[in-house]
Amino acid sequence: MVRKLLYRIYERRLAASLPPDALPQHVGVILDGNRRFARERGLSTVADGHRLGAGKIQHLLDWCHEFGVAYVTLWLLSTENLSRDERELAELTAIIADTVTAIADNPRNRSRGFRITPVGALDSLPDELRLALKRAADSTSSGGELHVQVAVGYGGRQEIIDAVRGLLQQRLAAGQTLEEVIAGLTPELLAPHLYTTGTPDPDLIIRTSGEIRLSGFLLWQSAHSEFHFTDAYWPAFRKIDFLRALRDFAGRNRRFGR
């Protein structure tokens, strides 16, 4: 009881110390550590870890809404994850489908204007998951307060390959030669063909579980992002951890490569 009270006091102090004009508008999160959490806590299956992690997502969205974050990108499933054990993958994709559906159907999220957009190589996903993502996107398309991108079947290298392919197809169909496309290629021409087109690049990327790498998350978009790594496994990620990430970001001197 005393420990919880101390945490609440610390939370309030952290929140009060955050300068509103120095907070990120787009936060990307690599939700890592579900499997290790399950194993270290002696849970029955790793799927139990995934379920606990899924239950944490709504809390994160509540915190983002509270602090005025306008865009959140959540990495829920990588392209590499698609090669996992068939049973685990089936359980994981079902959990993702249920979670995204619950976020979309949550009346509080609807009243707040949450919008969900799936990003990734969606054609590679199981039909049930792909349909659940489409339904969530369609039912929240009018939201404009918090844009939630769910990266599912996502890989940064594959995204860049698909973007190059899309640009080439567009330009060649318009009558340009390959030499003309190459000569005129710029980042501004390629960006609209990324999965995340129309969304600003992330200001802050958070990775849980103690791993200090991006593993291909938003490779193109993270060129000028700030990174925050925390030892907490995703199911154990607390509001205090989120506030520390915001405090860390607010203290950075961002130069955007200049």
Termini separation: 49 Å
The backbone outline, from C-alpha atoms, is globular
- The chain-level structural class is alpha/beta
Residue fraction in strands: 5-15%
Number of discrete helical segments:
10
Radius of gyration: 19 Å
Sequence stretches where pLDDT stays below 50 over 5 or more residues? none
- Biggest sheet: strand arrangement: 3-4-2-1-5-6
**Order of helical and strand elements:** HEHHEHHEHEHHHEEH
Mean pLDDT: 95
Question: Main β-sheet, in a few words?
Answer: 6 strands, parallel
Number of strands: 6
Portion of residues within helices? 40-55%
Provide an overview of this structure.
By secondary structure, the protein is of the alpha/beta class. It is built from 10 helices and 6 strands, in the order H-E-H-H-E-H-H-E-H-E-H-H-H-E-E-H. It has helices spanning 2-17, 34-40, 46-66, 86-105, 107-112, 127-139, 156-173, 178-183, 187-190, 239-250; strands spanning 26-30, 71-78, 114-119, 146-154, 204-207, 226-229. It has a 6-stranded parallel sheet with strand order 3-4-2-1-5-6, sandwiched between helices. Strand 3 (114-119), helix 6 and strand 4 form a beta-alpha-beta unit. The termini are far apart. The mean pLDDT is 95.
